[in-house]
UniProtKB/TrEMBL annotation:
<feature type="domain" description="DUF7738">
    <location>
        <begin position="32"/>
        <end position="66"/>
    </location>
</feature>
<dbReference type="Pfam" id="PF24880">
    <property type="entry name" value="DUF7738"/>
</dbReference>
<dbReference type="InterPro" id="IPR056640">
    <property type="entry name" value="DUF7738"/>
</dbReference>
<protein>
    <recommendedName>
        <fullName>DUF7738 domain-containing protein</fullName>
    </recommendedName>
</protein>
Length: 67
C-alpha cells in the first residue's frame, strides 16, 4: 500500500513538473520580405505596387533562368 502511494506521488509530481516547464518561443523566420499593413519591402526596398514593370526590375534585377 505504501509503495502504491509513493508511486502515485512520483507519477503526479513528474506530470506536474513537465507541464510547468516553459517552452521556447518560436524563432522568427529569416526572410528578405517584410509585410506590414502599410507596405511590402524586399531587402529594405519598398515594392512599387501599381507601378510599371521596369520599377520592379530595379529592385529584383533582370530576369534569367540561371541559378
Amino acid at each position: 500500500m505504501r509503495n502504491n502511494t509513493v508511486l502515485i506521488f512520483l507519477l503526479g509530481f513528474c506530470c506536474f513538473y513537465t507541464q510547468c516547464q516553459t517552452k521556447e518561443p518560436p524563432k522568427p523566420m529569416d526572410t528578405e520580405f517584410t509585410i506590414t499593413p502599410c507596405q511590402i519591402t524586399y531587402k529594405g526596398k519598398e515594392l512599387p505596387l501599381g507601378k510599371p514593370f521596369k520599377e520592379w526590375i530595379k529592385i529584383f534585377g533582370e530576369y534569367n533562368r540561371f541559378v
